[in-house]
């Protein structure tokens, strides 16, 4: 086994999206194509309902998949195919927009007032951009949890120690794990050489490869006088791994570390991205927005009333 090295480290940055949702962006438009096939990762975490209740009212998507994972709180959703539902703590919604869908995601105030969740955008290859929309909604109780050498892993997509996640038949062959490593513990995972691999830290501290010199790794956004850098990484940090190697190794520091691990097969295709629509060419973007203006954007129509 060849242990992968960290290619680059980013710190999530505050931003406002939707109708006024305050969140942290781990990576996004400015990093394309570093995270191919992933386009964006947003971390929305707030104890102030005023920062999230405005939500994400009706808006279109085409050419991508959006993945929502809730740790705490409640999100109501609906779409142009007639689907409606609610996802709460531990639930996942994996939506394939494909040829076009209009949907909304509206957080509701939880008893504690805290909302914490994540949304990823994953790209679709050119041959699948116009596939029929679909989604897989998975409740927390359906997501298996396995323990390997003291490390607890919630397996949403992909496989660990013979335990397979409930999200399946996805084009980019993804893995999505919620990993908790005890203090001093080690998480090891084998993955396909060349697949993009990402870790996003939720809590605690850990070492995300075998190096211990913090100046060996590029940290995006670090100041020119950042002389106190550490290779032991903390929360709201995203780790991008080099593509070479077939094993990930994470070692917790003197307290536990929790992180999301994501991997997928890179598409290596051109990206034309504007707002909620991601295609391969500017001409395809123009067609999409022209269709949206004319009311012909949605190809698969349900019964939901868009209000």
TrEMBL record:
User: Which residues participate in Fe cation binding?
Assistant: 59, 61, 103, 105
Q: Coiled coil located at which positions?
A: none
The reply on keyword Metal-binding is yes
InterPro entries reported for this sequence: Pirin, Pirin_C_dom, Pirin_N_dom, RmlC-like_jellyroll, RmlC_Cupin_sf
Q: How is the cofactor bound?
A: Binds 1 Fe cation per subunit.
Query: What's in the keyword line of the UniProt record?
Result: Iron, Metal-binding
Superkingdom of this entry's organism? Bacteria
Cofactors per UniProt?
Fe cation
Q: Which residues form the signal peptide?
A: none
Provide the Pirin C-terminal domain boundaries.
Answer: 177-297
Query: In the record, what terms sit under GO molecular function?
Result: metal ion binding
Q: Where is the Pirin N-terminal domain?
A: 21-121
A Pfam family assignment: Pirin
Q: Does the keyword Iron apply?
A: yes
> Which protein family is named in the record?
Belongs to the pirin family.
**PANTHER family this protein is in?**
PIRIN, PIRIN-RELATED
What is the protein's given name? Pirin
Top-level taxonomy: Bacteria, Pseudomonadati, Thermodesulfobacteriota, Desulfuromonadia, Geobacterales
